[in-house]
Write a structure and sequence with these properties.
Chain lengths: 345, 345
DNA sequence: TAGGTATGAACAAACGATTGTTCAAGATCA
DNA sequence: TGATCTTGAACAATCGTTTGTTCATACCTA
């Protein structure tokens, strides 16, 4: 049984066995200021440490250094592929830098409690915050935080650190692609009217139209939120128009739109092309498989964690980092428009 | 600016302001052994603590009590809805009990490191472990753990604590439903041949057939793993048979099967009914919307966290807890077979 | 050879809580 | 009134590190 060996060995035990002081052991094991230690002593200590399978007690270290080497991430939803990707990215970077990731799901209801709890109890050194809340709500939540934080895909006027996706460019690219297929009447299934990202996407959509000399028609734009059911509802408006293609703000609303159209008897993609921003496995699972502009959400998580860690290390990084959209992924949901447009249904 | 107030107040500061000893403050704030404290003193301390917005320093407490009040959860994938649901459940229960949840994504590659790292550094009091690894790999990983752990939807002979879903009953129920629709030739799109859960599902499938006096036909069973592409491949076998319905092990493989059949020109659900185990939002996004037997994965997370916490509190709970499957959710992917079966394609 | 500088390691003070023990003063009793 | 018991709170040790300071020894230099 090696059980005994696995039990936590303390610095004191290593010190005793190596017949030196704990401080010496600590210095050797930390690897810093090696100058002041005889090679022979160092070796002896290293040997004993290995034999005892010594691991620094994380808690003691955290107390002494008043740093927990833990990052918290607060997300509104855990099952949204966008957030899980961000979490994965953040976790990777955190781990790579010796940090752990504390996850905290926060229902839009319980304002602030999570952020406050994590940061005020000194559980985390910093916070990664993704929120769907309105600006004021988020702002007042963050006021409770007594640690540095980075916002995910969100911008809040002020000095807050943020990592944002370039929704505008992504929207532009998606729209541009539809145009390149020959579509002239392109609907936009957008996000919440007030939201920053919704505006950005709309702007990108307009840019693409403009570049192609297509007049912007407000009746082709419907705003909802980012849910499946909102997608279904919104698309009913577009179905009444002569749109031949839809650029959707996100995967799930695109899925809603396709489901609804199909139920109404439309042939997809022949009668309506659909493209969405963001990409995930299930874009491929839809029928027709959904064309998308991939958004680097995992990288957003990585970059945010990086930013936070560098901030924690004393750096003073750029407050806002924008990530370019990823590549266009053409699947089966986008085709050239048929010569004769469908009249209505 | 209330900034100053928000800075971490220590026990000593509260004690000083209330003109008592730290130990007294601690006792009052812990709420234990209240007997030995004058009501008046207690009140004064409480008042000061509130004024100073005192929060116990989590790290100091952890060191002193040698408990971190943190649970670790190790998952193989972060974007799989099954795991995110489990995480959500675990996080809820953890939070409710004053624990935090440390998340750790563990690629099937880096054997053991994660578990060892978390537990040997005293970062967590216990571990929730979800793994797709083979038994021996998992077992050797766990040998490194020097904290209690609970396995998620996995059983490992021995005394390990587990929470498992009743895959057998779920499979039975799904199959039973297909039979009730009139299907007699039912295919099963299963999981990894060696896996415990795969066996269970197969057993449930057989039970339902038997109960309906339908002979078991091995050629109607194909095993793969739980991915989209595996679903596509496996279903080709079934397409060659006279099966009129498929009971799939999980959502994504069902989605793969549907995608493949459709590409091959099948009419769904008329020519092939499909039902899957597990439920998530995207079952509704598929076309036709996928019928499922819901599996309580979120509850699995909750129960597992509960189990772990009770174990940490000194209880000696049942090693294996089985959760009954949830209800049958009938959507559009399952219909009665047509009188004349499709011959082939 | 005496005085000064490196060198290597021990000493000791935190970090901020929890908790067993001690102790002064007031209450109780004979 | 003196001895004993309660009560309320202070004292003090401890958890396992990190890190500034002290200190003995050996080494130089003059």
């Amino acid at each position: 049984m090696t059980k005994k060996q696995r039990q936590k060995a303390t610095l004191a035990e290593v010190a005793a066995m190596a017949e030196v002081d704990v401080s010496t052991v600590s210095r050797v094991l930390r690897g810093q200021s090696e100058q002041r230690i005889r090679a022979e002593t160092k070796e002896r200590i290293l040997e004993v440490a290995k034999k005892l399978n010594y691991r620094a007690n994380y808690t003691a270290r955290a107390l002494r250094m008043s740093r927990t080497f833990t990052l918290g991430i607060v997300v509104p939803q855990l099952d949204n592929p966008v957030f899980s990707a961000a979490i994965r990215g953040a976790e990777n970077v955190a781990a790579k830098n010796g940090y752990s990731l504390l996850i905290s799901h926060r229902d839009p209801g319980d304002a602030g409690t999570t952020i406050a709890k994590l940061s005020q109890m000194n559980r985390v050194d910093g916070l990664l915050v993704a929120s769907l809340d309105a600006d004021e709500v988020l702002r007042s939540d963050l006021a409770e935080a007594n640690v540095p934080y980075v916002l995910l895909n969100r911008q809040l006027p002020g000095t807050a650190l943020s990592v944002v996706l370039d929704s505008r460019e992504a929207a532009r690219r998606a729209t541009e692609y539809l145009i390149s297929l020959g579509h002239l009447r392109i609907g936009h299934l957008g996000g919440r009217p007030g939201g920053f990202n919704a505006q950005e996407r709309l702007a990108g959509y307009k840019m693409a139209l403009e570049a192609a000399d297509i007049a912007f028609d407000p009746s082709l734009v419907t705003m909802g939120d980012y849910t499946f059911s909102a997608g279904r509802e919104s698309v009913r408006e577009l179905a009444k128009t002569d749109a031949t293609a839809i650029m959707a703000a996100t995967l799930v609303s695109a899925a809603g739109a396709m489901a609804e159209l199909r139920l109404a008897g439309w042939q997809l993609p022949q009668e309506m092309s659909v493209i969405a921003l963001h990409d995930a496995l299930f874009a491929e699972m839809l029928f027709p498989a959904l064309s998308t502009v991939m958004m680097p959400t995992e990288e957003m998580g990585r970059v945010a964690a990086d930013l936070l860690i560098s901030k924690l290390s004393g750096a003073d990084p750029e407050p806002v980092l924008a990530l370019p959209p990823g590549r266009l992924i053409v699947r089966d949901s986008t085709v050239a428009p048929r010569s004769g447009a469908r009249t209505s249904k």
